[in-house]
Amino acid sequence: MHQLLVLEAQDNLILAKINQAFHANKSRGEEFVYSVGDKVLPSTRNRRKELKAGDPSRATKFLPQWIGPFEVTRANPSASTYTLNMPSHPRLFPVFHTSQLKKYHSNDDKEIPVRAHLRPPPLQFEDGTEEFFIDRIVDEHKTRRTSRYLV
Question: Which residues form the Tf2-1-like SH3-like domain (predicted)?
Fold first, then answer.
């Protein structure tokens, strides 16, 4: 009698595990399989501390969400982990789970001309004044009515 109860409890546990796995996997998408040589972008979500270590004055919320691209050097699809070639980031551990990777799509203007970053033509003034393109504003000084910029 005792063995029958134990067997019934074990069967119920197995059925509960199957049911839980079914419901947990309903919301999960297909895992993308990468091969050696593919270019991927790793997520910085769990690695913000390592990225911020180089510049402590930098705000964490302004760090990029994805870095790279990096090349896959070793693939382990059974464990869903991939090793990346990351020579420029020695503080980061180079092994990532599939959920932390995104496929890199290069911006090839020949393949996808819509994505081309076209520069606007320079402005032409009738009075012959010169125009300068500003790379960045280094400093700003405001007085009552005017602002002066160091570029």
Answer: 37-105
List pLDDT tens digits, range 8-55. Answer: 999 999 999 999 999 988 887 777 889 999 999 999 888 887 777 767
Are 12 and 6 a contacting pair, CB within 8 Å? Answer: no
Helical (H) or strand (E) element with 103 = strand 101-103
Say how far apart CA 18 and CA 52 lie, in whole Å. Answer: 42
Note the pTM of the prediction, 2 decimals. 0.57
The percent of the chain in helix, strand and coil, each rounded to the nearest 5, is: 25, 20, 55
Distance of CA 131 to the CA centre of its chain: 38
Q: Quote the Cα angle for 41-136-54, to 5°.
A: 45
